[in-house]
Amino acid sequence: MMAVNMERFVSEAKGNGLRALREIKAGEVIHSCEPYAFCIAKDFLKTACQSCLKRGESLSRCSQCKTARYCSAQCQKQAWPDHKRECKYLKRLQPRIPTDSVRLVARIIFKLLSQSESDQEELYSIVEHQSHLADMSEEKKEGLRHLCTTLQVYLGEENHDLSQLPPGLDPISLLARVTCNCFSISDGELQDVGVGLYPSMPLLTHDCQPNCVMIFEGKRLTLRAVRLIRPCEEVQHIKRRLSSFLIELLKESQALLHRYTDVVPDRNALTLLLYYSDPHPSRAVELLRVGKLQHYQGRLEEAQGSFTQAYDIMKVTHGTAHALTNEVSRKLSECQAELGRV
Ligand SMILES: [Zn+2]
Ligand SMILES: [Zn+2]
Ligand SMILES: [Zn+2]
């Protein structure tokens, strides 16, 4: 296990939080973890590998359920322990596929029942997660009951197992917990390809001036410091609502850039899009995209500038080992080689 860099603490004013146990420099990994359970988002079931989350058009299908897809035999083998039990339920329900939250909760239930792995090493456990059931509107509760019915249909005859769940973790409260505590797993292009439950992460609070960023590589979540964090300082992430708003904005801009790929983009529009709290992973991804466009248009010096800026951010937000950082570094060398030749 990696060195522990943070601990859980309770402040009277704000409740649970995470704070640094030592000084953490910008670009350092604060925490890295695999999900307790995760699932691929419905929109990506046909195009994302259910193990490494890589996207591709020619993935091989699980011969049993014909729903799970994999990029390699190795990925299929690795995913089997998590897929084994759901496979027969998915097969029975074909061609219907339950929504993400139902598939995710089913996976959590299988894991809780098998007790092969617990979340005891986490700073926060699923039992402790807030469900907000008490202060939920009737409308929302009704929605949860619908999901619960779907879950029961999905699990069919093995429903009786549900009575073996740990106290307090009945299906309704698990569905409520997942709704409040799971994270979207985004890929390098900021597409939300999956959704996962990372037990310690709901402790992370939000701030408009965050000191860390959340980056995914496959389904592994990594928190990296974007500025110096002092011992005992609270570790804070950007506001979730704001960041999903930014992602919407980026999706829009991506669509625009693709549509007008042979047109010089409006500089003011781009400047606006690039204005994020610095260094921000979305900004780096956008710079990479802009750099590729400039490269494609033969504007090599501008492309070199964009790739250099993207690289400088990603060194901190993604780290030098991340696939996306390597891609930027490759594009940058390509540009430099072409500039040398011109
Ligand atoms: Zn894979
Ligand atoms: Zn299967
Ligand atoms: Zn929040």
Automatic annotation (TrEMBL):
<dbReference type="InterPro" id="IPR050869">
    <property type="entry name" value="H3K4_H4K5_MeTrfase"/>
</dbReference>
<dbReference type="InterPro" id="IPR046341">
    <property type="entry name" value="SET_dom_sf"/>
</dbReference>
<dbReference type="Pfam" id="PF00856">
    <property type="entry name" value="SET"/>
</dbReference>
<protein>
    <recommendedName>
        <fullName>[histone H3]-lysine(4) N-trimethyltransferase</fullName>
        <ecNumber>2.1.1.354</ecNumber>
    </recommendedName>
</protein>
<dbReference type="Pfam" id="PF01753">
    <property type="entry name" value="zf-MYND"/>
</dbReference>
<dbReference type="InterPro" id="IPR011990">
    <property type="entry name" value="TPR-like_helical_dom_sf"/>
</dbReference>
<dbReference type="GO" id="GO:0032259">
    <property type="term" value="P:methylation"/>
</dbReference>
<dbReference type="InterPro" id="IPR001214">
    <property type="entry name" value="SET_dom"/>
</dbReference>
<feature type="domain" description="SET">
    <location>
        <begin position="4"/>
        <end position="240"/>
    </location>
</feature>
<dbReference type="GO" id="GO:0005634">
    <property type="term" value="C:nucleus"/>
</dbReference>
<keyword id="KW-0479">Metal-binding</keyword>
<dbReference type="GO" id="GO:0140999">
    <property type="term" value="F:histone H3K4 trimethyltransferase activity"/>
</dbReference>
<keyword id="KW-0808">Transferase</keyword>
<keyword id="KW-0863">Zinc-finger</keyword>
<keyword id="KW-0949">S-adenosyl-L-methionine</keyword>
<keyword id="KW-0862">Zinc</keyword>
<feature type="domain" description="MYND-type">
    <location>
        <begin position="49"/>
        <end position="87"/>
    </location>
</feature>
<dbReference type="GO" id="GO:0008270">
    <property type="term" value="F:zinc ion binding"/>
</dbReference>
<dbReference type="InterPro" id="IPR002893">
    <property type="entry name" value="Znf_MYND"/>
</dbReference>
<keyword id="KW-0489">Methyltransferase</keyword>
